[in-house]
Write a structure and sequence with these properties.
The protein is mainly beta. 0% of the residues lie in helices and 26% in strands. It has a domain of 56 residues. It is built from no helices and four strands. A four-stranded antiparallel beta sheet has the order 1-2-3-4, with no helix packed on it. A hairpin with a 5-residue loop joins strand 3 and strand 4.
Length: 96
């Protein structure tokens, strides 16, 4: 699991842009772009895409179907857990 943390408060609007490609293998699981209020939080493992364990929001790029989750690749806005989808796109190949 790789991580990048910004542990300072963000008080002004900002934009993020990145490119992500995954494929060509049998690996799992994906990645999350997350927002937490607890600046000291850090996941102990890659379980739950590094997101489960503290209250917050994330955008999930999930490439593997886990128990209790949608069985295929998807992109979702999630809250507090990778299985709590607020909004979901189940055909991410249609995003350019």
């Amino acid at each position: 699991m790789g991580v990048l943390w910004l542990r300072q408060e963000t008080t002004t609007p900002f934009a993020v842009e990145f490119r992500y490609w995954a494929g060509g293998g049998t690996g799992a699981d994906g990645l999350t772009f997350m927002f937490y209020k607890d600046k000291n939080y850090g996941p102990g493992s890659g379980y739950g895409l590094g997101f489960n364990g503290a209250p917050g929001y994330a955008i999930e790029f999930d490439s593997y179907g886990n128990s209790g989750d949608y069985s295929g690749s998807h992109i979702a806005l999630i809250k507090d857990s990778t299985t709590n989808h607020l909004r979901e796109l189940r055909e991410p190949s249609k995003i350019t």
